[in-house]
Amino acid sequence: TQLLEQSPQFLSIQEGENLTVYCNSSSVFSSLQWYRQEPGEGPVLLVTVVTGGEVKKLKRLTFQFGDARKDSSLHITAAQPGDTGLYLCASNAGNMLTFGGGTRLMVKP
Amino acid sequence: DAGVIQSPRHEVTEMGQEVTLRCKPISGHDYLFWYRQTMMRGLELLIYFNNNVPIDDSGMPEDRFSAKMPNASFSTLKIQPSEPRDSAVYFCASSFSTFGEQYFGPGTRLTVT
Lengths: 109, 113
What we know:
heterodimer; A: mainly beta; B: seven-stranded mixed sheet
């Protein structure tokens, strides 16, 4: 059982569409990280959210941390083929950083 | 900074052979992590080191896997003997802290036939 549940697991959309992916847990976290992994490469940190209710924007990407700090969402506006990749959330669990199963996004031109 | 360096990038070997994967972390990072990634199981933590000392190896699948960090700038992950089910992409990552941003290498794609 994944400590961090990500949904959907797979998403295929057309360029220009909007999308939201989710990261949920039954545990409260002090912070949560979002990474993007492009094909053939390692994951790269996009953002860290720390405060319940926090919203951070990175160009067309909007990240939100739930008020109770148990969930987070990533919204992409006007998706582009360059957004294609695996989106991973990660947070503290026990004595180490734990990753969710990821959402695999494909944006078709 | 060159980032985390892993070698080789690709490894194809036959079942039963020994495989050694190598990692050079970012200078100054005290933490080093080894992960395995497959479509079925996602990104799994195998082991991590702090100041060259193994802290948690509970993710190491079995005794065929071993990892060492002889100094702050080098770590190895060894599989002996290798099996087809070990086929995966193995990532090394380094960080300033346990919960801080992790910097991943490009990975080693291992295929065991």
